[in-house]
Fold:
Amino acid sequence: MATETVPGPAGAAAGPQPPVLATRGLVSGYGRMETLHGVDIEVPRGKITAVIGPNGSGKSTLLKTISGLVRTWRGAVLLEGEDVARRPPHQRVRRGLCMVPQGRVVFPFLTVEGNLRMCAYPVKSEKDLRERAEHVYELLPRLAERRHALAHTLSGGEQVMLAIAKVIMLRPRLVLIDEPSLGLSPKLIDLVYEKVGELARAGLTTVIVEQNVRKVLSVADHAIVLVLGDVRYAGGVADLEREVDLGRLFVEGRG
Ligand SMILES: Nc1ncnc2c1ncn2[C@@H]1O[C@H](COP(=O)(O)OP(=O)(O)OP(=O)(O)O)[C@@H](O)[C@H]1O
Ligand SMILES: [Mg+2]
Structure:
């Protein structure tokens, strides 16, 4: 299986490039319960987009629908302008759309290096694998120091980093991360966000769902506020607090 990201259909064309990712009228849910009611978002290239909103508003569902873990009922998921909403998750991964799910998903009894290699299983060439791992270690030197350690012996923050590193092995165009700060101490949260900021500055387009609103807004450029499956705000972080009463949103569930 090829894992190199393929250029989108408009990638080589003249004129403005489409956003890396956009959704149009996205509707999805569970059983008969509709959770997302027609979500339109655009994710700017090379930036960090924060998705925030009260509990149960559909943030995780949005990431899962974009990555294909939850089926799209109606609407489009445009990756570099191409609608991938009816494609299975692995084909979206091949197109460079990778998700880091909630809860530090690593193989506990494999080493750091074993985790990286396992996730890059479609990469057949040993030379390519080594180059990809070295690239990850350059970006995340702490993982290089711990490369022979079993994953379950890493700190919580290091495990989050490893979960992100696993998808970087696939050379994604964009990464969706669900709740990276969950269960981490404030110091480790700072560490994780420092790294997320560095990765974005290195050009990785990142979408982060986060309960820790202050923290994610301190690194994000763009914000999307979801309330009960609808987009309440989409725009720059600088204008967010003028438009949305964040205190009220998170205390009362509406802003
Ligand atoms: N697997 C599932 N089966 C049935 N309903 C689900 C499932 N996952 C989520 N839901 C429901 O969908 C709605 C949105 O849930 P979702 O997990 O997307 O919210 P969220 O914004 O990520 O919340 P949180 O901030 O608590 O993580 C909720 O009403 C939830 O109960
Ligand atoms: Mg969630």
About this structure: Confidence is low (pLDDT under 50) at residues 1-13.
